[in-house]
Amino acid sequence: MKNPPSTTVCPAIVRQSPNGLEILAIRNAEFGNRLIAEESRETEGLAESARRSMLAASGVAIADHLIDIGQSKGIVQGTLWRFFLCPCPPLPESWSHEGPAGTGPASTFFWQRLDEYWEHDWDPAFIRAARHIQSRVAKLSGSQLDEYCPAERADIAQTILKLARECGHDKSIDPTEVARAIAGSDEKEWRLMMKPVRAEAVRLAKGGLVHIKRKGKIVDPEGFKGVYRIALSEPQ
In Å, how far are 49, 66, 70, 93, 132 from 38, measured between CA atoms? Predict the structure, then answer.
């Protein structure tokens, strides 16, 4: 009787950009370019393994629900790969992170276009993994794509954080202040910014940088309705 194949979990963070969909990738002097992937542990659920491997590899904590985007036996022979799409928190264009002691040199994290030709500095297994992820993300609904793979609006994020810092940690700002700061005083113009401002405020709140408040109380950024204000999550 054959032993069941080992299982590798591959948590993916994908974002929309002006250049198309981009996936978070790793560049390492020892291993070259790769995606985050790690053999699952028998003592963990697969989603838990995905969150743990993302945190250990990159320092990025994923606390929200992950989307199971399928499995494949065609990535590496004898191994079952399970893929999970993680909500994309606010992240820089690139950064370095040292994994657990004894795991080798620090890795650099960067954004790789999914629709580009991936050259020889990529292991073929990760190219196959990326194509699987690309095909599954293409099947997401528009609302799922916007929620899990948001198009970062750096201008809005920077304005929210700037105004919140100027306001102070013990106070909050009205989202209309953000809209006016970006679009000007013409109400027809700044009202068009209210939906993007809300989306970016939610993204920043889910990333732990700000709080969404209603009637002076912090609320769940995914479940609130109506009038809200924005406050820094901690002194910055």
Answer: 8, 16, 16, 23, 17
How high is the pLDDT of residue 186? Answer: 87
pTM, two decimal places: 0.67
Q: Within 13 Å, how many C-alpha atoms sit on residue 79's CB side?
A: 16
Residue 63 CB coordination number (10 Å): 11
> Tell me: the pLDDT tens digits for 172-206?
999 999 999 988 888 888 888 888 889 889 888 88
If you count them, how many residues does the chain have?
A: 236
* Residue type at 18 in one-letter notation: P
* pLDDT of residue 221 exceeding 80: yes
Query: What domains can you pick out in the chain, each with its CATH number?
Result: 6-148 (3.90.79.10), 154-232 (1.10.10.10)
Residues 44, 55: Cα–Cα separation, whole Å: 15
